[in-house]
């Protein structure tokens, strides 16, 4: 049995196979049929604008010889992409098999639907007779750039961003919940100034929120200006029309995008490079979070909630592997590799046009799909962990040497105030603390051996590793 003989076809990539359920929402916006459906939306909205005009031109037809569409005709046209399903996908594919051109196949598909208009609208409808208006004065890239921008915009706003914001909201809630939970820090892997678990999570909330602001302010650009961006064909057909104004109206108000007035044949894709770079940056921050949490689990600071019936290891039944974080790490890396390639490749085009962008953009769904899969696994992992209070308390109690920092800093302040015996504070604390196991008694004895003023001595002796967290709890408020 050859696997290629099995029907329906077996998915080649895990996004459409093993992980399909977790990434399927992107199919609505970034699959090939989704792109073709959006192309149809662009084509019919262009027809409607050309036939019915817009407010600035008095809502008069832009193209001579075309009557304004009736409300019923407009509804019929807009239903073409909305009804594009399995049958339509097959019909489009049949056209493309002949044309070897996907956008031309879209044009012919719309022509087919216009022929059916009398069945719904009656014999008086003009739609079968205005096929020439389909793709009027357009180059394929006029349709493609608008369709791609709208597909990506919708995929970001409807799928990726809600999942990303859910991660931020979850982390923010946990940061607030654990804002007072003291925890030993490790700098360079060595015990260091204590912090709180909430403050450490808030660091990620702050970092991710900065990227969220960039993403919410992201522009999605579009153009409709002909084969080399000059409106040459438009003017040849209708020289008295203000095609620049028509273009601006269509891109801005009909397509909901930012109008790009200066392009070659292609929209320059700079907005895409900006977007993918920001998503990749967010991916890398979350990758850092995955690694940190993985190490916290390894250290015992976080405990995992076992999933009933799940196998952690095929030979070691006691294990609960942090697989959700490992899966997220790997898929963030895959996403970044594709996003980096998209950002680097799409900003270049040979002179007025080449087709490297065409095949490259077909991987936008994969790039965001791997990120979406990682977001899904990261959220699952975050929901399956909780602080291990026993381990956290033990780590703090076993590392009294971390109080060397506040003691020597207080000694510096006392030396500046003129108290005796406070010289060389760093060196004195270093001699006591470095390379030794230090107990609470050792710390108190050292404090008593120095000429601290009464208030400072009382403050230092009251410190423990669990209370030496500065204003970490208050800093959580800045995570937004």
Description:
- This protein is mostly helical and 480 residues long.
- Helices cover 59% and strands 5% of the residues.
- The protein folds into 3 domains: 26-133, Fumarase/aspartase (N-terminal domain) (Fumarase C, Chain B, domain 1); 140-308 and 320-388, Fumarase/aspartase (Central domain) (Fumarase C, Chain A, domain 2); 399-471, Fumarase/aspartase (C-terminal domain) (Ribonucleotide Reductase Protein R1, domain 1).
- The strands form 3 sheets. A two-stranded antiparallel ribbon has the order 1-2. Strands 3-4 form a two-stranded parallel ribbon.
- β1 and β2 (190-196) form a beta hairpin.
- α5 (86-99) crosses α6 (102-115), α8 packs parallel to α15 (364-383) and α13 (323-345) runs antiparallel to α15 (364-383).
- 40% of the residues are buried.
List keywords for this structure.
single chain; Fumarase C, Chain B, domain 1; Fumarase C, Chain A, domain 2; Ribonucleotide Reductase Protein R1, domain 1; two-stranded parallel sheet; 21 helices; 6 strands; 5% strand; EC 4.3.2.2; N6-(1,2-dicarboxyethyl)AMP AMP-lyase (fumarate-forming) activity; lyase; L-Aspartase-like; purine biosynthesis
